[in-house]
Amino acid sequence: HHDRKILVQLISFESRRQILVTHDVTQNEKMDTMRRDFIANASHELRTPLTVINGFLEHALSSEMNEETRQRQLHLMAEQGQRMQRLVADMLTLTRLESLVQPPSSDAVRIKPLLNRLVEEARALSGGKHSITLQVQDVDLKGNHDELESAFANLLSNAVRYTPDGGRIDVSWGMDDECASLAVADDGIGIAAEHLSRLTERFYRVDKTRSRATQGTGLGLAIVKHVLLRHRGRLEITSEYGKGSRFKVSFQRAQLALRQD
Ligand code: ADP
Q1: In this predicted model, what pLDDT tens digit does every residue of 174-214 receive, in sequence order?
Q2: Which one of 68, 72, 208, 244 is separated from 29 by 20 to 30 angstroms, measured CA to CA?
Q3: 181 lines ligand 1 (CB under 6 A)
Q4: Is the distance from CB of 140 to CB of 175 less than 8 angstroms?
Q5: Best of 171, 198, 205 to mutate for ligand 1, by most ligand atoms within 8 A of CB?
Q6: How many CB atoms are closer than 10 A to CB 84?
Q7: How would you list the strands of the sheet with 179-186, edge to edge?
Q8: Which tens digits make up the pLDDT trace of 58-84?
Q9: HEC profile for 41-84?
Q10: What is the pTM of this model?
């Protein structure tokens, strides 16, 4: 394998005995590169709102301004502050998920009430501008409630954010062949095929401007991916540019929690 990199270390204890140690560092190097990229991207993402805030502050300190201007600038600064807060929150969630070595607990998570609430929140986020339907079977999963909540919430908020006003979003949860699956389908802007395989990479966005304008951090689907890894779920994305997208998450039968009542 020419793409493997082996580190050879010569450790000499005594004059007549030598020990040769080899480490396969390919994986380590990949991790290092990923970590470096993450820090570089994160710094870049944080620098933009900081620059805006600092610019306004300097301006405010150095010149007189009328009340109307002051209000407008404070408002813009608050927006940028909130953006930084979302970024830091998603970065923390993601790094926390990655550092967990224990599998999630095998507690039963009640999915039906969870989805009922998340769909209400999606309707609030939409401000009544989309028609959002929910079809749900009472099937529970083993796992961590908060992790599953953040994964599902990300899929729902993406559907709202990438679907123009007047669009529809259909959410369904239930048994499907041998799996339990959640499908979130929208008739929004859709995604061209060449982007599909990269969507779960951190900070990967098809359209940075749209993602920012709709309060995206570029980390949502990376969070989804990590939660699914921990719950043995798989993500299937089907989409057509200009037509809409469908994000389907399936869990194996072994991941289902049997109802006690
Ligand atoms: P973001 O915070 O930018 O939404 P995500 O990781 O959640 O980040 O998603 C990555 C990218 O995938 C988005 O920037 C967007 O381009 C695309 N995307 C995600 N969900 C949808 C969807 N339902 N419809 C169209 N594009 C989507």
Answers
A1: 998 889 999 999 999 999 999 999 999 999 999 988 888 88
A2: 208
A3: no
A4: no
A5: 205
A6: 15
A7: 131-136, 168-176, 179-186, 244-251, 233-240
A8: 988 988 889 999 999 999 999 999 999
A9: HHHHHHHHHHHHHHHHHHHHHHCCCCHHHHHHHHHHHHHHHHHH
A10: 0.87
Helices assigned H by DSSP within the chain: 26-62, 67-99, 111-126, 145-161, 208-213, 220-230
Tell the residue number behind the tokens 């929150």, with chain if given: 89
Q: What share of the chain is helix, strand, coil (3-state, %, to 5)?
A: 50, 25, 30
Return the SS3 of 38.
helix
Q: Is 157 in the pocket of ligand 1 (CB under 6 A)?
A: no
Ligand 1 midpoint to CA 186 (Å): 12
Provide ipTM, 2 decimals.
0.99
Q: How far apart are CA 156 and CA 127, in angstroms?
A: 14
Of all protein residues, the one whose alpha carbon is nearest to atom 23 of ligand 1 is 159
In the reported structure, the alpha carbon of residue 202 is separated from the centroid of ligand 1 by a whole-number distance in angstroms of 11
What is the whole-number distance in angstroms between the Cα of residue 27 and the centre of ligand 1? 28
Using the structure block, give the residue that is written with the tokens 């929690």: 257
Task: Write the residue with the smallest CA distance to atom 7 of ligand 1.
Answer: 220
